[in-house]
UniProtKB/TrEMBL annotation:
Domain of life: Bacteria
Protein name, per record: Helix-turn-helix domain-containing protein
GO molecular function (one): sequence-specific DNA binding
Keywords assigned: DNA-binding, Transcription, Transcription regulation
HTH araC/xylS-type domain location: 198-296
Amino acid sequence: MGTAIDNTEVLKDWFLRSGVHTPLHTCIGPLPSSRASIVRWTSNQPDAMIQTISSHPNDYRIAIMLEPVDARIWLHGQPVWGGVIAAERFRICPPSGASQWSRLSSCDIVNLFVPAALIDSLNGLRETPLSLGAQQFTSDRHVMELVRRMLSGDAMAGPLQSQYCDGLMVALLSYLLEHYSRPAAAPQSSTLGGGRLRRVLTHMGANLATGVSNRDLAALCGMSEAHFSREFHLALGLPPHRYLMKMRLEQARTMLLAGGRAMADIAEACGFHDASHLSRTFSRHFGTPPAKFRQQRGN
């Protein structure tokens, strides 16, 4: 795709070429000063067909997973990922090259298209210019906070939404250049991947109500507890007990959206001690109590 991103139709065409045939949830851009664009797309259905994602020659693309997604990714024909990408993970794709992926679950993904010229301009203000890059999926609460603010720009700034998002975009890129552009050793890769990781996550998901021990999960993989915990953390960025809590919270949110269940029943089904424990934990993670969350969505 060689056309400059100068209107939303170019963005929609890029997504159509990349296999996205559902209407885009959010499509903003280019922003007036940064010329960056913000696109959010969701799908309730998996798509096992291998799609080619072509990088725009003039833009970095920052992909942010708002929800967990089960995906397979290939770069230069070599597999680089197979399994679940956790929620609130992002990666930075440079302005060249192409990747392929297939998606075996639903998704909720934000893509930020950032002109390389803007990155060069900001980088030039640094005493030591460095290359921006984070091609491994990474978790960072500051990145997620800024992205979520962009997504709520209409509610926060009304007709000044574009100007509001422009400021946040520069703040995000300044942060990324500071924290994701230093030369570093090649990231450690986990030996816990593919079928073994999917088996562990399936077992965890089937036992949200009762919980599972590290010993049991390690036994599924033929590892010692210490080795399993280390490899799990490398693979998903969280220790097993914290990832299990994330899964419980995601399940609770799904049940709240579905409606028809008492809070105590949801707490029990998702492995919380009681409704109060669910409410406290849900509020810390999602920023709103579960009762209010359900009320806002009419359930």
